[in-house]
Design goal:
By secondary structure, the chain is an alpha/beta fold. Helix content is about 30%, strand content about 15%.
């Protein structure tokens, strides 16, 4: 019997699934389980997710700020902010000891195949620098393979396109398309890379419960951050 494990605070997770499959709530649930009051985490939110933005105590930062102290922060880049976002990711790489949560990782600069930049440096060197990453991905076939090769766990929800299913199957034979087709709504498969074991997951708690779990871990809201 193999025990189920959640990620440690220094590990990486790749969460894959089509829009509406449940990956955002699951990712936020994993975020709620992390010790972000010890090592700060920054949510990179391109799409203005309703769940993440419903948590009042998350503090917004800009491109000139990389938080030092524990807490949960959010940065809201637009797609045309690629240069500013690339520079900010290099600041994270230099700072170290900070976690990242990428909501829709394909929107990050240099996120595609064969592209080099801050994202690749964070993914390949982030363990030594203590930069844990949770990456949410809609189209596994279109994202940098380092998102997956450097992940300690995969969470796989329903996928529509055969190219994405094939990419997932290439990651682990146990994640075959037939298994994905049998997934119920908001259910997922959890693959533990280190143990080479696959688990079937029930849906994450409801969004409002996840938001409350995160909110209760945060200290009273700070109006101004000067880190």
């Amino acid at each position: 019997m193999h025990s189920f494990r959640l990620p440690r605070d220094d590990q990486r997770v790749a969460i894959m699934g089509r829009t509406g499959s449940g990956k955002t709530v699951f990712g936020a649930w994993l975020l709620a389980k992390s010790n972000f009051m010890k090592v700060p985490r920054v949510i990179v939110d391109y799409k203005g997710d309703a769940l993440l933005n419903s948590i009042d105590r998350i503090e917004e930062v800009g491109f000139n700020t990389v938080p030092k102290r524990g807490g949960l922060y959010i940065i809201r880049p637009l797609i045309h902010d690629a240069d500013a976002m690339e520079a900010w990711l290099w600041k994270v790489w230099e700072r170290e000891n900070i976690g990242l949560y990428f909501d829709e990782a394909f929107m990050l600069p240099n996120s595609g195949h064969q592209r080099r930049g801050a994202l690749q440096a964070i993914l390949t060197q982030g363990r030594s620098k203590t930069i844990p990453v949770i990456s949410l991905v809609q189209r596994p076939s279109q994202i940098s393979l380092f998102v997956f090769s450097e992940a300690d766990y995969y969470a796989v929800f329903h996928l529509n396109r055969w190219q994405d299913k094939k990419t997932v199957q290439d990651l682990a034979e146990q994640l075959d398309p037939k298994r994905l087709e049998k997934l119920k709504e908001y259910h997922s498969h959890w693959y533990d890379v280190g143990k080479d074991k696959l688990f079937s997951m029930l849906p994450a708690p409801k969004p409002e419960i996840v938001a409350e779990q995160i909110d209760t871990k945060l200290k009273p809201k700070r109006r101004h951050y000067r880190g």
